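Hi there, hope your week has been kind to you so far. Thanks so much in advance, here it is.
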Amino acid sequence: MNSQKKRQGMVGIDAQAMLLAFSLGCFFLPVAAWAVTIAGVEGGQSGLMLPQAPSEEEVVAKQTKLRVACPSTAEKSISQRQQVQGESLGESLGRLGDLSFYVQGVGRHPSVSLEWPADDSVGQWEMQQVVTNRRVSKVITELAKLDPADASKRISCQIEKAISDYSALGGGLLGNPVGARSAALSRDTTILEAPKMAFATENGPNNATVLKGARLELFSLAFVVGYLHLADASEAMLSLALQAKAQRDILYMYKPDAGVPAADPSKPVDMAKPGPVVLLHCYGLYNRVALAAGLLGCLDAETRAVYLNSLGAVDYPMGSAFSVVTPYDNGVDVVGPNPAETAQAELPREIPDVEIDRLIDLVSKRLVSPTS
């Protein structure tokens, strides 16, 4: 972590999200990694630690208790369980942009700094949201049963589609990094304007995906690639990483000595009318934790272990898609999931820009020469 970094360029975004009822501390306190090992699955991967679904009898008993203790949580939980149970794998993959499945109040949104490079720990906030999504858990569990090549193909197709959707929603600045870089250098602000509905915090009409949902979908897909070690998804994962890196390079242009007008750090940022710095920082794809997770999943086990050991890792509990409550729901203290219903997702705690660049280079070289 860049502990010596000056904090004079902070832009005052006080986007404090509502804390979960049980406490945010669960993300960082040591939690036993209890889960079921999926071994000997025909055609699938073995040795993966996956959350176990509860029995139907247990679900009925817990839902009855939850309706009394936390009626609103029970209503949401029952609805979401019914939705994911009725979806095919393809439907669940295609609905990862649904914001209603991501718990929104899992922490404080990071402030936006005008001093680059950004702090090494930036990116944890969104990944905490990713592991709250029941669909992410379902997708991982079902893909783990497939042949890795088939699972990689499905994920790759979804990443490519999600990048296209994100680019269409993100406008010129987020969707066309090459044009945005040229516009920033020439001070052409037309392409830098935020697109309509860019900052929506709920799904659009008929549950249409909005920019925030498309962004979280891509982070979720990167997380899946990393969790399942889907090396055959390298090309799609690399496309995501390169677009994210291009956005980072544009973001880092916004400083006084770059010849590009910077935001005024003395004034609070209006999230309804943000400039390019906020748009790139808060709605861009350059989440180093998500990118590192996905890129590491494209490499061999030894390389992954070395990186995680050198960077330091943090475990995020990932509940079963079919639990009555996940570790992130109200009522978890009343009818919390059994230990077997929760697996631990290990992700880098902090990662600097240079390591992302190295991982991109490693994956690029593996694509060119797979045996290297």
Observations:
- The CA atoms of residues 362 and 368 lie 10 Å apart.
